[in-house]
Amino acid sequence: MDLRLLLFLFYATTTFCNGAKILALATHCLADAGHSVTVLETNDKKYARDFGHGIKTEHIYVPPDPRKTEDSKEIIWRSSRSGFYIAQVYNSVGDKALKMMIEYDPETFWRVVNGTWDLLVVDELFAVHGYGIASIHKRLNGTPYIVFSTTVMLNSDSMTNALGRCWVCRVHMFISSVAELIYKPTYFTHRLANFYQHFTEYIVQPFGMMHLRDLGINDFTWHQYFRGASAFLSDQIDNIGFPVPEGTEINNVGAMCSETNATLPNALEAFISDPKSKGLLLVCFLAI
Known about the structure:
alpha/beta
């Protein structure tokens, strides 16, 4: 049987040279076995890459947008985003890219959309075009799709995927960076505020990916998307055991410190002030 596989690579966030070697190996094996493997590569490179092994490439050039880059930096590093802003995150990254794909190279885009595929592998995190194309083929043809590198879009998706995580114990992604707030699930008011943040994500969800309607999808939801996936592939060894033990003794805090120390310990001050370090501070996190 000739398996016609379509693999999405979005903005080079998942490439064969960093973080996707397992997927690359599987793809190469399929291609070497005589199956038809096609990669839809969408990025700001003007030429498609040669993945070898007889793998075909459909390349769509998306011009770099400095404004989008600055918007992304603002969202990720310099702001506190509540549940209402989750739509803005996807709109400023993946949805705008989808619009540009349709406008700049409609021939390639619609050729892929209207192609015949036996399996689709969708790269997350912001591959909005991937969500749309996979959903279309699933609805119209029953074509299975695999979600690569499962990233929980909404915190409630962990329940949809049966990951065994307690959303009450786990604080919402939004923690104020200006208020001295320590999330404690033992407090009713904290649980209520946490529920509010989760609930608002569902209210604004349809407004974050408006250009999916250009593909004929007017009712996209993460819940439906994850439930329709045939499998999940992960590139992190620690994600194999999805259930995560959690307790109420963990205190989640934001960027705001409740107490500010005026001076540093002498040893730490000497290390940071060392001219040889040039202000570079390395922090290592490890678990025993």
